[in-house]
Automatic annotation (TrEMBL):
<dbReference type="InterPro" id="IPR015797">
    <property type="entry name" value="NUDIX_hydrolase-like_dom_sf"/>
</dbReference>
<dbReference type="Pfam" id="PF00293">
    <property type="entry name" value="NUDIX"/>
</dbReference>
<dbReference type="GO" id="GO:0006260">
    <property type="term" value="P:DNA replication"/>
</dbReference>
<protein>
    <recommendedName>
        <fullName>8-oxo-dGTP diphosphatase</fullName>
        <ecNumber>3.6.1.55</ecNumber>
    </recommendedName>
</protein>
<keyword id="KW-0378">Hydrolase</keyword>
<comment type="similarity">
    <text>Belongs to the Nudix hydrolase family.</text>
</comment>
<keyword id="KW-0234">DNA repair</keyword>
<keyword id="KW-0479">Metal-binding</keyword>
<feature type="domain" description="Nudix hydrolase">
    <location>
        <begin position="1"/>
        <end position="125"/>
    </location>
</feature>
<dbReference type="GO" id="GO:0008413">
    <property type="term" value="F:8-oxo-7,8-dihydroguanosine triphosphate pyrophosphatase activity"/>
</dbReference>
<dbReference type="GO" id="GO:0046872">
    <property type="term" value="F:metal ion binding"/>
</dbReference>
<dbReference type="GO" id="GO:0044716">
    <property type="term" value="F:8-oxo-GDP phosphatase activity"/>
</dbReference>
<dbReference type="GO" id="GO:0006281">
    <property type="term" value="P:DNA repair"/>
</dbReference>
<keyword id="KW-0460">Magnesium</keyword>
<keyword id="KW-0227">DNA damage</keyword>
<dbReference type="GO" id="GO:0035539">
    <property type="term" value="F:8-oxo-7,8-dihydrodeoxyguanosine triphosphate pyrophosphatase activity"/>
</dbReference>
<dbReference type="InterPro" id="IPR047127">
    <property type="entry name" value="MutT-like"/>
</dbReference>
Length: 130
């Protein structure tokens, strides 16, 4: 089984972060993003997925963390980006539940296991997220 590359955008606004309900498991939250297609690079996929899923054009972003995740069902290479500036009003174009929550409340939400290290970093120190 080959690795699937995934580009994920962590939208930050003041001390809040945009999270959305995963498509398949209703009690799992996720950051917007998706699979990198064959012909595209990670940043191209990030921009495409955020436009498709959240309706925004990302303007200011930076690479945050790479996570390699292996389970019985899937092998993922996840590339997480912090997004601080965008054009448009974020909302779920796919009609999924989405909310802005304070970073320190991330502990109350279930995320995929692969996100653990990223969630830990986001809760730790808000200031370096600029
Ligand atoms: N979007 C997103 N996917 C995540 C996160 N953490 C995590 O392990 N994943 C996994 C779930 C999926 O197995 C994989 C790809 O995510 P996805 O289902 O959003 O991919 P996609 O948007 O291209 O999917 P699709 O709707 O086009 O079928 O990454 C996360 O925070 N956000
Ligand atoms: Mg997606």
């Amino acid at each position: 089984m080959n690795y699937t590359k995934v580009a994920i955008g962590i939208l930050l606004k003041k001390n809040k972060v945009y999270i959305t309900k995963g498509k398949y498991k209703k009690n799992i939250w996720e950051f917007p993003g998706g699979k990198v297609k064959k012909h595209e690079n990670i940043v191209h996929a990030l921009k495409r997925e955020l436009l498709e899923e959240v309706g925004i054009l990302i303007l200011k972003f930076r690479f945050f963390k790479y996570v390699k995740y292996i389970s019985l069902k899937k092998k993922l290479k996840l590339y997480f980006f912090l997004i601080n500036k965008w054009k448009g009003e974020p909302y779920s174009k796919e009609g999924h539940v989405y909310i802005w929550i304070f970073l320190y409340n991330l502990k109350f939400f279930n995320f995929p296991l692969a996100n653990d290290s990223v969630i830990h970093l986001l809760k730790k120190d808000i200031h370096f997220l600029k």
